[in-house]
Amino acid sequence: EIDIVHSHHRMTTLMSKIASKFVKVKVIHTQHLCIENKFYLTKIALNNINIITVSDGAKEILKRKCNLDEKKITTIYNTIELECENKEIDSKLLELKG
């Protein structure tokens, strides 16, 4: 009983759009970045679905390079904390970074 598929990658969005023709689910895509040589596939995957972008820049690229409908794109900004009480860094993160 899945109602919504929320994808973060153009290929899973494309597969979800195809599946949505057979099982009635709504497809929503979140666009984090735009890769220069992937605009054709991105346009096919994201055309006629609701899109969330994490920045105005990503929204503008989708509008300009993929010719997507601005009315279907909503921006919800990624956020960062400017002030942080916890000054400790997770040792696992440092280990993975190394």
Q: What topology does this entry show?
A:
Layout: E1 4-7, H1 10-20, E2 26-31, H2 39-46, E3 50-53, H3 56-66, E4 73-75, H4 91-97
Parallel strand pairs: 1-2, 2-3, 3-4
Concise summary:
The chain has 98 residues and is α/β, with parallel strands linked by helices.
Q: Tell the overall outline.
A: globular
Give the number of DSSP strands. 4
Rounded mean pLDDT score: 86
Proportion of helical residues: 25-40%
Distance between the termini: 43 Å
Could you characterize what this model shows?
The mean pLDDT is 86. The chain has a 4-stranded parallel sheet with strand order 1-2-3-4. The longest helix is centred in the N-terminal third of the chain and has 11 residues, at 10-20. The chain has 98 residues and is an alpha/beta fold. 38% of the residues lie in helices and 17% in strands. The chain has 4 helices and 4 strands, in the order βαβαβαβα.
What keywords describe this structure?
alpha/beta, globular, 98 residues, 4-stranded parallel β-sheet, 4 helices
